[in-house]
Specification:
The complex is a heterodimer of chains A (about 190) and B (about 1000).
Chain A lengths: L19 E2 L4 E4 L3 E8 L1 H11 L10 E4 L2 E7 L2 E7 L3 H11 L5 E5 L4 E7 L3 H5 L17 E6 L2 E9 L2 E7 L3 H11 L7
Antiparallel strand pairs in A: 1-2, 2-8, 3-6, 3-7, 4-5, 5-6, 8-11, 9-10, 10-11
Helix pairs in contact in A: 1-2
Chain B lengths: L13 E10 L2 E7 L3 H7 L6 E2 L6 E2 L12 E6 L2 E7 L9 E4 L14 H4 L8 H5 L6 H13 L14 E13 L3 H12 L4 E4 L16 E2 L2 E2 H13 L4 E4 L2 E7 L3 E7 L14 E13 L3 E3 L12 E3 H9 L8 E6 L3 H11 L3 E7 L6 H9 L4 E3 L1 E7 L6 E8 L2 E9 L2 E5 L2 E3 L2 H5 L4 E4 L4 E4 L6 E3 L9 H20 L10 E2 L24 E3 L4 E2 H9 L5 H8 L12 H12 L3 H4 L13 H5 L16 H7 L2 E5 L2 E6 L7 H14 L2 E4 L4 E6 L3 H8 L12 E7 L5 E11 L2 E6 L4 H14 L7 E4 L4 E7 L3 H5 L3 E2 L12 E7 L2 E7 L7 E7 L3 H11 L6 E2 L2 H10 L34 H4 L2 H4 L4 E8 L11 E2 L13 E9 L4 E9 L8 E4 L6 E6 L14
Parallel strand pairs in B: 1-7, 8-9, 8-15, 9-12, 15-28, 17-24, 18-19, 18-24, 19-20, 34-45
Antiparallel strand pairs in B: 1-2, 3-4, 5-6, 5-7, 10-11, 10-29, 13-14, 14-15, 16-25, 21-22, 22-23, 26-27, 30-31, 32-33, 34-40, 35-38, 35-39, 36-37, 37-38, 40-44, 41-42, 42-43, 43-44, 46-49, 46-51, 47-48, 48-49, 50-51
Classes of the chains: A alpha+beta (about 190), B alpha+beta (about 1000).
């Protein structure tokens, strides 16, 4: 994995108040982003990566980052590409051009999901109130990306630091996710 | 003096902290570290409840979660929690406890008449007594049984507590923190493995906390436990969980733990959950659940003051409580002798040690002699006296062929021990099969089915030294299996608490009239030795039948105390070896577990995700009603002042047909199908042909399952040669997507096509009505909206108010219609814009109810309403949607099945009531005769029924046997108030030629 960079992409939405702001953990809404679902065969991996600006991860659960770019491995022929919102058309055009002679599917899903940043010493604990997978650093190291569930809804979870994670969920599920996170964090307020 | 049975010193209670509590309203005091049971005993209270069936006075039998008698209710926050075990309830200031199953009071209970009537309540008496007369069941028997059943009263209010959840993973989960558990945790933790150690008790340490004199590494056992626990707690790789019961062992080493966080606190912080469910996935599990002492089955073995010997020792050494001033110890094994010695050392008078064995070990007899204790060997208790507390016991001498009286002995407490039973519950839950160990005299774990091992007393390894060694070995082996790592750990050596010998199973011999005395096997369910024998006499030969006939082993401890005795009694009666009678399976939960911890966060707003559309705030503001459609909240109808639902829907329908209506269709499922083989894929998934559909055009798609039945429908637009925008029903979206993905991955991985859910990428505003074009025209750029350029069933991309837009010209109302798809975050802007714009045209916003009426006018089906999983395209009148020239599609072969092509199938038709004002009831049966004879099968049922403003009358759709051939005929809808006559018609009630649609 190249140097790990996330700050430019998944930044807090400056216009939104923190959803949760405790010493031990905070939950912040992310600003909008360009998100693309890329599906292609093996032969498309290299040209797509070149067009997007990084080499697509090919290991399960892996992510790859570059300035203003992140790519998530979601399946043997499935990636999610992330870029700043304003880069959407440019990224789509570049990828479509590069893959013109390759069977592929490139679909804009920028608005399908929203992202939040969960960070702090208790971030993994808080997420594990609803996420059934092991978030220990040995089992889920920096840069790991996976789809899983939070209680009853599907989410995507990406480790961006020892104590920070990006969670993505479909727009209409996000209230459920953040509502339950905030509620579960109540006990951290206890004396 | 308060607490007259408290020792002078010793125990792990906080003597400086005196705590007030009440039991049945009577004020008492105890200390920090007490359980309710130990505090009651310190106050000399043994009578704590009445038994289930006979209402016999009962006392505290144990010191643990297996307690069958001391079930109490605890009042808190104006409500009570029933059936808590006093042995597990930790004392806190102001605790209010009440006894149960008594009326009017614990001391005087009218239900106790059942005890005198007991000859009339033998095992299985329900089955024998309440068989006739039949009419009595509903009115007499069931109400009476229900009133008499159960112990405590259920709480009346919604649960005001909150419950937490945590998923956890570890290399080694150790269940139980006695010597085996601590040693296992130490050994596993030393390797660096991630360890979770849990114990159901308030304090970790298990049986070590009850030891008086045994030492480990030269320290008293409780002190060693304390230091060990502190050392474990300091490690980053160890999680210690006290007050945490491992209640369920499931597949793939998934173990559920219930952690009790606030029940022991006088005024808990409302931010803290009452309990937390830990859902643990462990690579390896070490079960160190220990063993339980067995009661002895002698006549009147249930009086208050009669207790298990080790419980007596625990109350003394751990809680500083003497169970009596004059204690008789009855035993068939060595370990109970230590209880007598410990009590004697605290100045308690030992009435006698009565050991059934003719020759108990000399060493024990020597210790007893040194303390001047009376020892009776070959001696058994044959009965007891004392109503609310034991006053004396009858002794009998075991002689050749029977028992002769050996007089009686006065006592205010009787400690008994029939030996030990390894706790194999969790092993059994892990689906392991126990095996009989003759040397141990008990069932022990057999082969491991999952990645688990038992250590210590729960597998019949007794004695402190052996238990520690077994624990170390189990911890090391578990860590190695989980992580491959080992570590050298100095093992502690111990002195004392040696393994004992002896033990007895089944009913004990006595010289009493066997038909008159009760010797209890299962205390909680009032099952006596006689009941078990009766069950055998009446033909119950399997332990599973005996259990259900007598209810033995069906108590909250699942028979951990009673099973072996019951088995032995049954085996004796059957004259079979014990192992041939079998053992019942232990199931989850290990101990009673709250409903709250299972419901957990799934309550109120979080019962299920609540999915909202972009118009949600608008609907709320306008006072619109919501309808739940799957997880979505959809606008149902918008009543204006003075309107009821019927009037609101009628108005909305009329305005849509006259002018224009705005409807939020964002919830419809959307799937983007992309790739060179996109058309081929849809060709296979849907009944319709797709290859010749031109980009920019739409088509209605019908999806079947393999059997040929309709499972979904929706409009599909072709955006480019290799790109389709598929819509599905709201409720079917997830299933359709999964079905498509399933076929792609398993049947046609060769196809170059991929599907992406775009349901939430787009918000959809539907404009329907003759003015629809005028409403959207000012905002649309890049699309020619004229009927010629953009006819019905078209799709194009452009912008709406400057944001990208996919515009569909489609209709689910029969009117001119457009659906504006914009990116989700622009949905609110579009909705706000259009809801203002329609006002210029006297338009309405409308909800799902009006949508349903408008589509029914046109005979459009709704999957799930007109279909129920047994409806084919032909049944629904949709044969036109099947591509006849296609070589194959999902469901094609199903449709050729003989039963689907045979006559007599139910077909979709319209129904018009003879009285146009009557709206039929959806789901009502359709018959030929107004009063069909009983047993006549229905011809079909009503699927949709509304009052239609467009038709000026009621309309209905129905599935009716051979319905299309019955047009013009009269059928009947039998209802409670009489049959409603209907005429069978074509199911299109409005604008049959579609002129409005194409406007």
């Amino acid at each position: 994995m190249a140097d790990f960079q996330t700050d430019e992409l998944f930044g807090p939405d400056a216009s939104a108040a923190p959803l949760l702001n405790l010493d031990a953990v905070s939950v912040l809404a992310c600003a909008p982003l360009a998100r693309l679902s890329l599906r292609c065969r093996e032969t498309g991996v290299a040209p797509a990566g070149t067009a997007f600006g990084l080499s697509l991860p090919i290991e399960p659960l892996a992510s790859e980052t570059a300035p203003n770019r992140a790519a998530f491995w979601l399946g043997p022929d499935e990636w999610m590409l992330v870029a700043p919102e304003s880069h959407l058309d440019q990224v789509m055009d570049a990828c479509e051009t590069a893959l013109a002679d390759q069977p592929h599917a490139l679909v804009d899903i920028s608005h399908r999901q929203d992202a939040i940043i969960v960070s702090g010493a208790k971030a993994a604990w808080l997420l594990n109130t609803g996420v059934p997978i092991d978030l220990h650093a040995d089992a889920f190291p920096l840069g790991t990306i996976t789809r899983t569930v939070f209680h009853k809804v599907p989410i995507m979870i990406w480790r961006t630091g020892p104590d920070s994670f990006v969670i993505e969920a479909w727009g209409s599920f996000m209230e459920y996710v953040t509502g339950l996170l905030v509620q579960a964090a109540d006990e951290l307020k206890a004396a | 003096m308060s607490q007259p049975f408290r020792t002078e010193k010793g125990g792990r209670i906080d003597r400086a902290a005196e705590i007030s509590f009440t039991f049945d309203g009577e004020g008492m005091t105890g200390h920090g570290g007490d359980t309710l049971a130990s505090a009651l005993l310190a106050n000399g209270v043994h009578l704590v409840g009445r038994s289930f069936k006979y209402h016999r006075p009962r006392g505290i039998l144990t010191a643990g979660s297996e307690e069958p008698n001391a079930l109490v209710g605890i009042y808190r926050n104006g409500d009570q929690t029933p059936n808590l075990r006093a042995t597990q309830v930790e004392l806190y200031g102001g605790l209010e406890a009440i006894s149960q199953n008594r009326f009017p009071a614990l001391g005087l209970d009218v239900g106790a008449v059942n005890d005198l009537m007991s000859p009339f309540f033998p095992a299985g008496f329900y089955y024998k007594t309440f068989k006739w007369p039949k009419a009595f069941w509903d009115r007499v028997y069931e109400p009476v049984i229900r009133a008499a059943a159960g112990l405590g009263k259920p709480p009346k209010n919604p649960d005001h507590d909150r419950y937490g959840n945590l998923y956890a993973h570890c290399d080694v989960l150790v269940i139980g923190s006695g010597p085996a558990g601590l040693a296992a945790a130490l050994a596993a933790a030393e390797t660096g493995a991630r360890v979770i150690l849990c114990d159901e008790q308030a304090e970790l340490g298990g049986s070590l906390l009850s030891e008086g004199s045994a030492t480990i590494d030269g320290k008293l056992a409780p002190d060693w436990a304390g230091e060990t626990i502190a050392a474990l707690g300091a490690k980053d790789n160890v999680t210690l969980l006290a007050r945490t019961t491992a209640f369920g062992y499931f597949a793939q080493n998934f173990v559920a733990l219930a952690e009790r966080l606030t029940d022991h606190i006088s005024e808990p912080d409302p931010n803290v959950p009452r309990e937390r469910l830990w859902q643990v996935r462990a690579r390896e599990v070490v079960i160190a659940a220990g063993a339980l002492e067995r009661p002895m089955v002698f006549p009147e073995n249930d009086r208050p003051g009669i207790m298990l010997a080790d419980a007596g020792r625990t109350y003394l050494n751990r809680y500083g409580v003497k169970v009596g001033h004059k204690v008789l110890v009855a035993t068939a094994c060595d370990t109970a002798w230590q209880a007598a010695f410990d009590l004697a050392d605290h100045g308690v008078e030992i009435a006698a040690i009565a050991d059934m064995r003719p020759n108990p070990p000399d060493a024990l007899q020597a210790i007893a002699q040194a303390r001047g204790l009376r020892v009776e060997t070959g001696c058994v208790v044959t009965g007891t006296n004392g109503r609310k507390r034991v006053k004396s016991a009858l002794l009998g001498r075991i002689v050749e062929g029977g028992v002769t009286s050996a007089g009686d002995v006065a006592c205010d407490a009787l400690l008994m021990s029939g030996g030990w039973t390894p706790t194999v519950s969790l092993y059994s839950q892990s689906r392991g099969k126990v095996v009989w160990d003759e040397a141990v005299g008990a069932f022990v774990p057999g082969v491991s089915v999952q990645n688990e091992r038992s250590a210590g007393a729960c597998r019949g390894v007794y004695g402190l030294a052996a238990t520690l060694e077994d624990g170390y070995a189990a911890g090391e082996a578990a860590a190695k299996a989980a992580t491959g790592k080992t570590a050298a750990l100095a093992r502690a050596s111990s002195n004392g608490a040696d393994a004992g010998t002896g033990g007895v199973l089944g009913t004990l011999p006595h010289d009493r009239n066997a038909s008159k005395v009760k010797a209890f096997v299962d205390y909680q369910n009032d099952v006596t030795a006689k009941d078990v024998k009766l069950a055998v006499r009446e033909g119950m030969h399997s332990i599973e039948h005996i259990k259900r006939y007598t209810t033995t082993g069906m108590a909250t401890d699942q028979g951990r105390l009673s099973n072996l005795n019951a088995l032995q009694i049954a085996a004796d009666a059957l004259e079979k070896p014990l192992i041939d009678v079998g053992l019942t399976t232990f199931r989850q939960p290990y101990t009673p577990t709250t409903f709250g911890i299972f419901a957990n966060v799934s309550r109120g707003d979080f019962f299920d995700p609540v999915r909202k559309t972009p118009s949600h705030g608008f609907v709320e503001e306008k006072g619109g009603a919501f309808e739940d459609v799957g997880q979505w909240k959809r606008a149902w109808y918008f009543a204006e002042s003075g309107e009821d639902m019927h009037a609101a829907v009628a108005r909305e329908c009329e305005v849509v047909r006259k002018s224009v209506g705005l409807f939020d269709a964002s919830t419809l499922g959307k799937i983007e199908v992309v790739g060179p083989d996109a058309a081929e894929f849809l060709e296979r998934m849907y009944t319709n042909p797709w290859k010749k559909l031109a980009p920019g055009r739409c088509r209605y798609g019908l999806m079947l399952n393999d059997a040929g039945f309709i499972i979904d429908d929706g409009v599909i637009g072709r955006l480019a040669d290799d790109r389709f925008h598929v819509t599905t029903t709201t409720g079917g979206a997830a299933h359709v997507f999964a079905t498509m993905e399933d076929y792609l991955q398993t049947e046609w991985p060769d196809l170059d096509v991929w599907i992406t859910s775009t349901t939430e990428q787009y918000a959809v505003a539907a404009l329907q009505g003759p003015k629809a074009r005028e409403v959207i025209a000012p905002y649309i750029d890049g699309i020619d909206l004229s009927a010629e350029a953009f006819p019905h069933m078209s799709v194009a991309t452009g912008t709406f108010n400057g944001v990208p837009c996919r515009l569909f010209r489609i209709s689910f109302t029969g009117e001119l219609g457009f659906e504006v798809n914009v990116h989700r975050r622009h949905g609110k802007m579009v909705w706000d814009t259009l809801s203002t714009e329609i006002e210029k045209h006297d338009g309405v916003v409308y909800g799902t109810e009006t949508m349903h009426v408008l589509r029914a006018d046109k005979g459009y089906i709704i999957v799930g309403q007109e279909t129920d999983g047994t409806v084919t395209p032909d049944d629904a009148g949709l044969t036109w949607a099947i591509g006849k020239k296609k070589p194959d599609f999902v469901g094609k072969r199903g449709l050729a099945r003989p039963d689907l092509v045979a006559g007599g199938r139910k077909q979709l038709v319209g129904l018009l009531t003879k009285d146009p004002k009557i709206v039929l009831e959806e789901g009502a049966q359709v018959t030929k005769l107004a009063k069909p004879p009983a047993g006549t099968p229905a011809e079909g049922h009503v699927t949709s029924a509304y009052f239609s403003p467009a038709a000026g009358r009621s309309i209905a759709m129905a599935l009716v046997k051979d319905g299309r051939s019955l047009k013009g005929e009269t059928l009947n809808i039998p209802m409670p108030a009489g049959a409603i006559a209907v005429e069978v018609v074509d199911p299109v009630f409005y604008d049959k030629d579609g002129a409005r649609l194409n406007g």
